[in-house]
Design goal:
This protein has about 290 residues and is of the alpha+beta class. Helix content is about 45%, strand content about 10%. It starts with a helix and ends in a 13-residue tail after the last strand. About 25% of the residues are buried.
Length: about 290
């Protein structure tokens, strides 16, 4: 260890001790008081109490390491450097892949909602195992929508923050590839709850969005049921056995979405179609 390193370690040690002593003095003197002389400051602190600790810190700071230990330290530092480089390379690869995906989707009229000028929270369930299928169906946790649908979602998000009790939007599903639609239909082939892939869903067009109300940190607010619940409590206007708070939150969500041009469906409180959704073609892009 060079002498400059020793000096640096000693400085840090003295600085830490100084902070600790300052805290001790603050505990001794009443708030707002100050010593008349510097000698009073050290007298009240009784520095002899800290001498052993200071000596120990000095010994640690000036301790020489063996060549073997120094070599191990160099190896560890090199391993950490390589790990950081690999992490940066991986992050850059992900960024480039995302740029390529965004470009392909944009050619089909679909935009990444992360580019919208509003605060939205993403909890894309089919990119996780937290869904009724119990498995990942997407390789990406992004949300894509047709541009006018995305613009309407921007308005809805703005309306939500202007409510008497402001809230935010948490997105559960947006554009859905046909392969995922087929997988959901294979598990739960019930019209009105899952669209038949032969005719397609508005999700496959990028004109439907599944979402719920949440607070400013993105934590979900109480709703009648969780996302993808198939009970009658999930119906858009169900009331029996549902708390008044959950009904209020659902009504507030429906209000801002309708105001922005979306419509509801009977069996899912979280599902909203944008007007003229059927005018758009089914898009089959994997992600």
């Amino acid at each position: 260890m060079s002498k400059y390193s020793v000096y640096l370690v000693l400085f840090i040690a003295v600085f830490i001790v100084g902070l600790y002593l300052t805290q001790e003095y603050t505990n001794i003197k009443p708030t707002g008081s100050a010593p008349a002389r510097l000698s009073d400051f050290f007298a009240e602190l009784k520095l002899e109490r800290y001498a052993p600790n200071l000596k120990q810190l000095t010994q640690i700071a000036t301790k020489q390491i063996s060549p073997q230990e120094e070599e191990k330290l160099k190896i560890k530092q090199e391993q950490e450097r390589l790990a950081q480089e690999q992490a940066r390379a991986k992050a850059e690869q992900i960024r480039l892949e995302q740029e390529k995906r965004d470009k392909i989707f944009k050619e089909k009229g679909l935009v990444n909602v992360e580019s919208l000028p509003v605060k939205l929270f993403l909890d894309i369930r089919y990119a996780t195992e937290n869904n009724f299928a119990g498995k990942k169906l997407y390789t990406s946790d992004k949300c894509y929508l047709q541009k006018d649908t995305a613009d309407a979602l921007t308005k809805a998000a703005q309306y939500a923050t202007q409510e008497e009790t402001p809230f935010y939007l948490c997105l559960y599903d947006c554009y859905r590839p046909l392969s995922a639609q087929q997988a959901l239909w294979d598990i739960h082939p019930v019209p009105g709850q899952v669209a038949n892939p032969k005719t397609g869903s508005n999700h496959n067009r990028g004109t439907a969005v599944d979402l719920g109300p949440c607070d400013q940190q993105g934590y979900p607010l109480p709703t009648p049921t969780p996302f993808d619940d198939f009970s009658e409590n999930a119906y858009a206007y169900a009331k029996e056995g549902i708390s008044p708070e959950a009904i209020r939150n659902r009504s507030a969500l429906q209000k801002v979405m309708r105001k922005a041009g979306f419509t509801t469906i009977r069996k899912e409180w979280w599902h909203f179609n944008y007007k003229n959704a059927k005018n758009y073609p089914i898009v089959d892009l994997e992600f």
